[in-house]
Design a protein that fits this description.
With 413 residues, the chain is of the alpha/beta class. It contains 15 helices and eight strands.
Amino acid sequence: MNSNKEYSVLQPKYYREFQCDPTRCLETCCERWKITIDKSTYQKYIKSDNAIIKDIVASGLSKNQDSKSDDDFGIINLDKDMECPFLNKDGFCEVIINMGESCLSKTCKNYPRATFMINDVIERGLQMSCSIAAELALLNENGMEFERTKATINPNDIFINSMNIDESDCIKIYIEIRALIIEILQNRKIGLNERIVTVGNFLNQIVVHKKFPDFNYEEILSLVDETRKSLSDNNFISRLKSDPIQYKDQFNILNSILAMKFSEGNGIATASKRYIECLWPVLDAFDNIKDSTIATFYKGNFEKYLKPYLNEKEFILENFLVNYVFIYRDELFQIDKLWHFYIKLCVVYGLIKFNLIGLATYYKGMDDELVLKLIQSLTKTIIPDDNYLNSVVNYLEEIKVTELSKLHTLIMS
């Protein structure tokens, strides 16, 4: 049955240029993370008469005990090397070879695409855990641009995260908040750290002063307009309040957060291979630092080895954050989860900077290839791990670092 339909689409301009290319791919998407299978595909594989598929399915496929819908009905059981069992020894997919590309699951057809629907409007972009997507999206010195277009899409053929909102005011408020956050992050009149601080000040006014859930739509829209106008004021950054940065605290908190990934999260077995390659130099660079010299060592190596690169290439991190806001927006589109969204934004950005300082220290400098490798592999390792990120938020609440001025300890430098 043909369910194709034309939709209005909002997407970054890079989206139309993306094409999967195994010859350029630096890390396969068929390993080291949970791969779910939609119910239709699951049944298709189970019923297949193909000898190779039947042999793989016998141990390589099972029902997903955590399933929330038909889209994640089944799960692929990774082999002893944490790879998809449908990959053959040459790295090619036996489903495509023996059943055809049309028989791939929604997960496999979709990745690294992320597709959302707000009522009848499709929004879509790419996840930076794909090396080709990361190179395409992050190296654009002019910044990430968005476009509205039309596209014919079969909603039954891909994952679509749907959000049906009846109140037009509610839709407007979410979209306006996100649009302003992106506008702030792309305001190059000030440094990227200060832009993130500005985002925090804006969201904090909604969360604290508007006392959700009894907020007023018109008040928040007025706040959006006020903040937008202030961006043209060259002195507005001087009005931002943040406690002085304690580099020792920054190092210790981020170091603890990183360690939690392997105690509270999915563990090292599901970590990207490329991230492990990045992690060892970071650990080596920070090994055996005396407590009394942490602040000097950490700040000094940032200034000497990483800052010169970021002075020229800060737009890479800007593009990452803009894409993050556009793609990972579930909590952003819930008024009572806005601050959790901001905390996680600061955590991810802080971990990227922490790892980059370690890598720059180890290699005595930084380049595009290493930055892209770290961002792609950290994204693949950290962002899909909801249990880990939620544990980090709980940890930061316990040590009282989730208030606005304290949270900036994670990001400022």
